[in-house]
Amino acid sequence: MHVTGVVLGFAIGFSLGLLGGGGSILTVPVFVYILGFGAKDSIAMSLVVVGTTSLVGAVGHWRKGHVSVRVASIFGGVAIVGTYLGTRLATRLSGAEQLAIFAAIMLVAAGFMLRGRQADAGSRAAQTSPSLVFTAIQGLVVGSLTGLAGVGGGFLIVPALVWGGLSMRDAVGTALLVIAMNCVMGFYGYLGQAKVAWLSVALVTAGAMPGIATGTYAMRFVSERALRRGFAVLLIGLAVYMLSSI
After folding, report:
1. How would you classify residue 18: left for phi > 0, otherwise alpha for psi between -120 and 50, otherwise beta?
2. What is the mean pLDDT of residues 10-21?
3. Cβ atoms of residues 101 and 28 within 8 Å
4. How many other CB atoms are found less than 10 A from the CB of residue 76?
5. pLDDT tens, 170-206?
6. pLDDT at residue 114 is higher than 60
7. Where are the domains of the chain?
8. How far apart are CA 26 and CA 194, in angstroms?
């Protein structure tokens, strides 16, 4: 089981490094269906894993000049408010309801990837730049999802940042910093509501660290289109399985 946690952690980190998202979407099912934890505990633990890994990844991207701290501060500042509100709402939901919401988010993420969001977003970015109000609304929605279902929101943050004019590489790096900020607030909101198995968290995180470094390096070589489509198929399969198991 220990080896399994490390190996799966590597896959989580690799996804974050390569795509700037997808970490939470993999982490929660890993804790629930493979490691055997309850939904609320798994969401809380996933926030620790994804938050820590995203911060390390953001530092790596920042060293290469691919993080906009200003954009992350604006987007992430609003998202933190949404995250706190989401964790408050989560106290009124059962674990099964949270998993159902999580599965629905996975289907939305798959839709983004199947549509080829990077190409679409790039063309839109050349045409227009979203207003501060629109960016704030996006941050609020993403933050709310983080608190409610334990998702870092990278699959929403990256296209939003690209639409705002950032390059794909800068959007991925900036998204990782925003995800880390969201996860800190999300975990704070779960204090007292969930039990954290720190050994399992440490093992998954230990695998995720080299995973995100590998994903960041591989980003320059891997076909994004093929990877997005393969990841989308995985998300659809996981979502269907989760919905059928509730």
Report:
1. alpha
2. 79
3. no
4. 25
5. 888 888 898 888 888 888 888 888 899 999 999 999 9
6. yes
7. 2-245
8. 19
